[in-house]
Amino acid sequence: MSETIPVRTIETPPKKKHDAGRIHPRSFRGFYRRLRIAGGSALFALFFGTVWLQWGDRQAVLWDLSTKQFHVFGSSFWPQDLLLLSAILMICAFGLFFMTVWAGRIWCGYTCPQSVWMWLFMWVEKQAEGDRNQRIKLDRSPATLSKLYKRAKKHGGWLLISLVTAVTFVGYFTPIRALVPDLLQLKADASAAFWVMAFTTATYINAGWLREKVCVHMCPYGRFQSSMLDSDSLVISYDVARGEPRGHRKPGADYHSAGLGDCVDCQMCVQVCPTGIDIREGLQIDCIGCAACIDACDTVMDKLGYETGLIRYASERELAGGRRRILRPRLVGYGAVLIVMVALLAWAIATRSLVSLDVEKDRSLYRFNHQGQIENSYVVSVLNKSHQDRTFRLHVRGLDGLHLVNAAPFVVGGGERVAVPVAVAVSPEALPSDVLDVEFELEALGGSSRTWQETTRFTGETQSPR
């Protein structure tokens, strides 16, 4: 069994925070920052761009609540396909488990929407109010027109981003090419307008005001990650053996002879952290794995001429002088389950039926028609999930002499459901019992030999009326 890494779940002391109040991360540069920008840009392109794509005469990706259909390019999914959505959510969960065992909270640091929008809002804040020290000074300064102007710029930028985000999100449920003009002309549906306002407010509060509090206090992921990590998981780590004892030193001084490690205690790793922790205190639940501290520390090490990697992605086993094991039972297990689930989902989507057949018996038990036959009434519902019109014919089986009274072919349009009333009759002498199972068969005409079956009940009397 894999060991569990002893993740420190201590709260960072207040003196380690950026400021007594709001956290003000310092701007920085580095490899992982560029990697995070690339991941965020891909997420933005996917989120803001996909909603504008067209597929024929409709939006390419649209969850149409009015028709209860989910369109994804050339495929349409109905409530009957809810099991597929559940499977996708399970695959996402196992994918998150796999990534956590492999590299900790890498999802949180690079592609989680909360952290991506949080970094965007912090960039807007920097453009409006300046870098860390300027923002701290602005917070402590008295109210002036200059301060009001800077705050207005910041909050105006936040609100604009929040509004665009909300309109885009609602656009996945209401066709966006009609939604945007309606909103601009104040003609939008009340429901759509409400959700745009609701998501604008939620984005503004979450990314602008709550920020790291969502990751630290509201998201459960950080709470259970310690049970998923093992001693071979890659996590952001401070090399204690190399860095301690930390302390200031003069440039060019022989600090080793003074008994100091490589850490100069510059606090840069603390100042760039969006959650305000000190990574030198060990792995903590507040760490979202953004690697900002790695970029900041490497920058300082480069300036001093020291070897980089004092703070780096490393496993507990590597820090203890061992060699990290990549293939281990927990990681292989999650990976195998993930591959199997993805394969099963692909098979289920490729082989899913594009026609749904439902048969509902009329509430009346039975009746005798003018020919003295026992007759049952049914409503046959046929759902055509494809985008082409299709012609069908019904058959009924289960007993010799059982036949449909009205068996004419019928057409079901693409993406439509048609309810067809039908009657089934049989001679009373042919009935073996008062209740028996019969099978409706739906046959697709026009070159397709596909059939669909549905079993229901037929009721009657075994003797003809006198």
Please state roughly what percent of the residues sit in beta strands, choosing from under 5%, 5-15%, 15-25%, 25-35%, 35-45% or over 45%: 15-25%
Q: Helix amount, in percent?
A: 40-55%
Level-2 CATH architecture of the domain at 355-459: Sandwich
Radius of gyration: 32 Å
| Global shape | elongated
Number of strands: 16
Number of helices: 15
Q: Main β-sheet: number of strands, strand sense, barrel status?
A: 5 strands, antiparallel
Q: In CATH, what is the class of the domain at 355-459?
A: Mainly Beta
- What do we call the CATH topology of the domain at 355-459? Immunoglobulin-like
Quickly list its features:
5-stranded antiparallel sheet, 16 strands
Q: What is the compact description of this entry?
A:
The chain has 466 residues and is α+β, with helices and mostly antiparallel strands. The protein is built from 15 helices and 16 strands. It has helices at residues 31-50, 82-103, 106-110, 113-129, 132-140, 145-170, 176-184, 190-210, 212-218, 221-224, 240-243, 268-271, 292-304, 316-319, 329-351, and strands spanning 54-55, 58-59, 61-64, 69-72, 75-77, 235-238, 311-314, 355-361, 367-368, 374-384, 390-397, 403-404, 410-412, 417-426, 435-444, 451-459.
Structure description:
This protein is of the alpha+beta class and 466 residues long. The protein has a domain at 355-459: Immunoglobulin-like (Sandwich), CATH 2.60.40. It contains 15 helices and 16 strands. The strands form five sheets. Strands 8, 9, 10, 12 and 14 form a five-stranded antiparallel β-sheet that branches. β4 (69-72) and β5 (75-77) form a beta hairpin. α4 (113-129) packs antiparallel against α6 (145-170). The radius of gyration is 32 Å and the shape is elongated. The protein starts with 30 loop residues before the first helix and ends in a 7-residue tail after the last strand.
